[in-house]
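> example.struct
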């Protein structure tokens, strides 16, 4: 009985420590690379900076809750499309901001002689992520 309680306490400690490590790594990743500030700058939405911070925090809390809660959802195709759209927008914007911060697209487009099409490449990446997420949610989840 006591051994079982100690094992449960150890599991809680290990899980909490792992969560803190992953969370700190994610925050460091976003902070060091400046992804969110660059995303705000690219979208010209500096007046919504508090909303960006709140969205990140609320999104992380809701994601953590859904990861551990025993929730089973049976949603309509419309709800899945909307959910997939939100996932695709998030992934696409995060990938576009990351590549912009790291100057991957500007260097690539200059080397292949298509420097004036950087915005089109970023939009293609974002839309590809959106449609990929929609396909995954509609085809595999439903």
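> example.seq
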């Amino acid at each position: 009985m006591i051994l079982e309680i100690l094992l449960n306490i150890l599991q809680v400690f290990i899980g909490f420590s792992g969560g803190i490590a992953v969370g700190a790594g994610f925050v460091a990743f976003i902070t060091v690379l400046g992804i969110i500030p660059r995303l705000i700058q690219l979208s010209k939405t500096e007046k919504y900076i508090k909303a960006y911070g709140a969205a990140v925090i609320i999104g992380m809390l809701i994601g953590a809750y859904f990861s551990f809660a025993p929730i089973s959802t049976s949603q309509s195709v419309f709800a899945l499309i909307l959910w997939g759209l939100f996932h695709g927008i998030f992934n696409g914007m995060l990938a576009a901001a990351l590549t912009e911060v790291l100057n991957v697209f500007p260097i690539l487009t200059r080397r292949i002689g298509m420097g004036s099409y950087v915005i089109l490449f970023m939009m293609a990446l974002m839309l590809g992520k959106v449609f990929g997420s929609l396909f995954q949610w509609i085809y595999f989840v439903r």
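> remarks
Residues 28 and 91 are 18 Å apart (CA to CA).
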